[in-house]
């Protein structure tokens, strides 16, 4: 597995932030070099962004996380639901499977031409794939869960079309069978930050499984594939020790950039 480079991490993180409606004023310039298509739900909310440059082979597919009461309620329905992924099937979180089937339409179409997300996404990506481009799927929170599901599906339908998958604060997606059959473990980076409670969800650790390589950002370090119980205990210890660690000189040095704006 190749390492995720810093500039890639920063770009993907900002693009995930831009999936939410309150971020464009701060990061709009990041979108300037890209051509863009958007997939929109029946309420007119941007749910997926497809970004590419003519002279680059990478297409970035960005999935928005939960937005609104209905999305959050769906996340809390931890029931396993059967899903067919081309040549195999397994059980995944009901709320994330639901998202794959939501009617959406392209920013170049109208709501009357809406299709289920999975079908529409493949249709929109096809002209770009025909040009030899490859696809990076990214997302935050439930958007990350949907990203891994759709990346796996797309890899099954178009072999070697997926370049990488990067998620931020992603909950676990599916059963042990999902974990065993997932095609992109070696191309998937799951970013967790300190004690992000969503990354421990759903609260059934031996039924719902994470996929890919975990990169845990904690105490100014990156830990790889730290077991869940160890991550929780380290986070708890860090929280209890925080009043003391704030006295360390490295904390003062880390905040030096504040004086550039003073």
UniProtKB/TrEMBL annotation:
Protein name per the record: Lipase
Pfam families in the record: Lipase_3
Q: Where is the Fungal lipase-type domain?
A: 60-204
Top-rank taxon of the source lineage equals: Bacteria
Q: Which GO terms describe its biological process?
A: lipid metabolic process
């Amino acid at each position: 597995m190749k390492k995720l480079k810093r500039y890639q991490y920063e770009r993907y993180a900002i693009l995930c932030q831009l999936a939410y409606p309150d971020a464009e004023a701060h990061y709009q310039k990041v979108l300037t070099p890209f051509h863009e298509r958007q997939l929109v739900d029946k309420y007119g909310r941007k749910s997926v962004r497809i970004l590419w440059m003519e002279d680059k082979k990478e297409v970035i597919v960005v999935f928005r996380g939960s937005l609104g009461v209905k999305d959050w309620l769906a996340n809390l329905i931890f029931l396993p639901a059967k899903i067919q992924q081309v040549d195999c099937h397994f059980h995944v979180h009901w709320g994330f499977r639901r998202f794959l089937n939501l009617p959406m339409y392209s920013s170049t179409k109208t709501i009357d031409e809406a299709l289920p997300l999975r079908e529409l996404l493949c249709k929109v990506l096809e002209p770009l794939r025909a040009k030899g481009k490859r696809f990076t799927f990214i997302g935050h929170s439930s958007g990350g869960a949907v990203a891994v599901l759709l990346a796996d599906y797309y890899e099954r339908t178009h072999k070697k079309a997926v370049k990488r998958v990067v998620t931020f604060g992603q909950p676990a997606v599916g059963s042990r069978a999902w974990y065993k059959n997932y095609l992109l473990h070696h191309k998937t980076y799951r970013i967790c930050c300190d004690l992000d409670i969503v990354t421990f969800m759903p609260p059934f650790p031996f039924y719902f499984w994470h996929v890919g390589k975990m990169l845990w950002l904690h105490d100014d370090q990156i830990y790889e594939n730290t077991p869940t119980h160890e991550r929780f205990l380290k986070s708890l210890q860090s929280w209890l020790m925080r009043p003391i660690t704030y006295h360390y000189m490295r904390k003062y040095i880390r905040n030096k950039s504040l004086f550039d704006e003073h």
